[in-house]
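== Fold encoding ==
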Amino acid sequence: MKIALQLAKKGCGFTSPNPMVGAVIVKEGRIIGQGWHEKYGEAHAERNALAACTENPKGATMYVTLEPCCHYGKQPPCINAIMEAGIERVVIGSGDPNPLVSGKGIQILKKQGILVTEHILQEDCERLNEVFFHYIQTKRPFVVMKYAMTMDGKISTKTGASKWVTGETARRHVAQQRHRYAAIMAGIGTILTDDPQLTCRIEGGKNPIRIICDTTLRIPLSANVVSTAKQIPTIIATCCRDAERCALYEKKGCHVLLVEERNGHVDLEQLMYLLGEKQIDSILLEGGGTLNWAALSSGIVQKVQAYIAPKLFGGQAAKTPIEGEGICYPTAAFRLKNSCVLPLGEDFLIESEVEQSVYGNH
């Protein structure tokens, strides 16, 4: 199963909105086939592993990180291939919460006399597909709020300069996250201040769909994200109903998405619903303090990635990762859980899950 997990990770960034899945086929103590879900719309891990078999898989055991599918989508059901191949036993990491599967695949295999073993390295398998599990159950994107800051909590100096807070190793890790998640979201403030490209910058990597929150549609037509919109999918979420102005961005290749206004800004809850309908299953939120606060307050954030540099900027006017109204009392804090620390060169990353129960208390 550990080998199957490593195989599954090879599909990172390419399977969305499908899960990452790996499969290993073992016969008489020998690995005879391996495969993973390589790209959305293409063959699933089980079929790839069977196709790669070096000998007849009849009587073998298949280890697979996720319950095999039993419905027709872009590919036929994997349980059919497993049964036709004569696999004797299937060892499964985690169940599939997709209502079209959700235990049905396991039941069919058992009815056919195939021995099924479940929950092997289940936590690792579920963690691998946290995005898929969230999206398939909520139809909303899994949102990761990312920021880089100094040890005194500053994301820029008092002049607004922010290149670079962290070192090259940390920045490479961020590029990997841009490849991993389906989309990247930023606010108009970030665009006006930095004019970023919001691309992956990894050889062979996948550029994320770019989402810009721009309430009044004031993003310059010369901005990098607009001028390259015909090459990289770009969505501008706005409350502006000026058809002529919207048409200027559409002509440049942007998709203008009209959203209702909430507290003077784009309604982020509605935006998540609309993006979910477009099969955008995950978002790396690289916003400034205003958008980060709005995202937390709206309850759309599932995870926080804080890249921390061993530096001190100081300055009362220097910006911090989360601004907005803020909370009144420590007891009302947004609480994080299951934190882990990853050293990245001289910097380090603290990654935490957001406790969903805190939403609505602010």
Remarks:
- Residues 139-354 form a domain with the Dihydrofolate Reductase, subunit A fold (CATH 3.40.430.10).
- The two ends are 43 Å apart (CA to CA).
- The chain has two domains: 1-130, 139-354.
